[in-house]
Amino acid sequence: MAYDRLKIIGGNGNLPLAEAVAKYAGVKLVDRICGAFPDSETKIKINESIRGDDVFIFQSMRPGNTNNDCFELFLLGDAARRCGAKRTTAVVPYAPYTRQDRSNGREPLSFAFFARACKAAGFRRYVFIDLHNPGLQNAFGDSKTIMDLPSKYLYLKELRTRVDYKTYKVGSPDMGGLKRVNTVGKLLGVEIACLDKERDSVTLEPKSRLVTGYVKNETVVMIDDMVATASTLGEGVTAFKDAGAKNVIMCAAHALLVGKAVDKINKSGLDELIITDTLPLSLEKKAEFNIKLTQLSWAERLAKLVILPLHTDSPTTHAFEE
């Protein structure tokens, strides 16, 4: 089946994923310019006709380049609207400004402002992956389609390829992730374990300890939405291994890996890191790891269960199923 009216535009934030999705969808990426003027202002131009088309714009917000990637998304959306696109959907695998989601009166609601800017740029449908807080979807209010896709089905598919996966324990680095690991544990058919933080009676420093589950001589699969500085990861590995875990595997959708994160991971005692491609990861960065690194791709799942169904106005419920 040909999708003549389906157009995919990739921003610089995650061009490899946009290219892979377009390939699975059977279309070519729209020719565009995403560059900069001599004074560093963002320069956007769409080099082919998209009038009357259903346009999906892919953009992740890379650490260290967040603001530029955000503005590039806004300008791509505005350009698509001015080019006469029939519908414009923002596909944002890693979304920005999701941590500052509460205000004491002197702070902005950053993600709510991001949502308003997306609307002003002409977007009316949005696809995210593992938002830091699912409640952030409410920032888009009256929008027709908002999808927050879970990475757990990618993890499940990968973990089930392991011959001993039934002996694993699924672990959370804190109580806030208990619901997430409960779901994965049930789907995988294994028990869960959970850490919580308490303050050391002498140093008063917070320290993770096992509060739920038994992990001695077991393989623990920790699950979190992101790895940023890797501090939470390091504390989790230490706590699970102090409780007797034989191996610790970490699953995280978003590999931000800021600062000395890779060095911390290498020294943490982690046995394997499983991530997805919501953010691009260069070969040079991958080479820095001295532990097993597994990167899972969203491309096929996004193309077949999200982009094509949205384009044809078909149900997207399979995107939330195995």
Tell me about this structure.
With 322 residues, the protein is α/β, with parallel strands linked by helices. The protein folds into two domains: 6-150 and 299-320, Rossmann fold; 153-296, Rossmann fold, CATH 3.40.50.2020. The protein is built from nine helices and 14 strands. It has a seven-stranded mixed sheet, with helices on both faces. Strands 1-4-5-6-7 form a five-stranded parallel sheet, sandwiched between helices. The chain is globular and about 60 Å long. The two termini are 24 Å apart.
Number of helices: 9
Structural class: alpha/beta
Mean pLDDT, nearest integer? Answer: 93
Strand content: 25-35%
* SSE pattern, N- to C-terminal: EHEEEHEHEEHEHEEEHEHEHEH
Strand order of the largest sheet: 10-9-8-11-12-13-14
Radius of gyration: 21 Å
Task: Offer a quick outline of the entry.
This protein has two domains: 6-150 and 299-320, 3-Layer(aba) Sandwich (Rossmann fold), CATH 3.40.50; 153-296, 3-Layer(aba) Sandwich (Rossmann fold), CATH 3.40.50.
